[in-house]
Specification:
Layout lengths: L16 H12 L4 E2 H11 L8 H13 L3 E7 L5 E7 L1 H25 L5
Antiparallel strand pairs: 1-3, 2-3
Helix pairs in contact: 1-2, 1-3, 1-4
């Protein structure tokens, strides 16, 4: 995971383990993807705020696979390299729905505590 850089406006945010799992599951809703593709999708969709490094990504993918929430199979990437492609399972979809609802509830509660943004 990245650390905050010197410029707070461009700072990247560290992800907690559960949050990374949720983002991986969400990314795989759009179809199978290899690990680097998952990391790039999270970075792109977060508008470059979230950066997932290999040291956190691959243990998370293994954890999700061991829980039965994703499945992996070997394939060939767009640059003609052998890669594992991950896809969401039925139980992974169910977990995504449950966790996304909990996360949205938590985010709304934190937003209420923080109150409106001051200028």
């Amino acid at each position: 995971m990245p650390t905050q850089g010197p410029n707070p406006e461009n700072a990247r945010i560290n992800l907690l383990q559960g949050t990374l799992d949720l983002l991986i599951l969400r990314t795989l809703v759009f179809g199978p993807q290899h690990g680097q593709g998952v990391a790039r999708a999270i970075q792109r969709q977060s508008e470059e705020v979230l950066l997932v490094d290999h040291g956190t990504l691959y243990p998370a993918l293994q954890r999700l696979e061991s829980k039965g929430w994703i499945e992996a199979e070997w394939g060939t990437s767009s640059n003609n390299r052998r890669a594992r492609f991950y896809k969401l399972t039925r139980s992974g979809r169910k977990q995504l729905t449950q966790e996304a609802g909990q996360w949205r509830k938590l985010a709304a509660a934190i937003g209420r505590v923080l109150g409106p943004e001051e200028s």
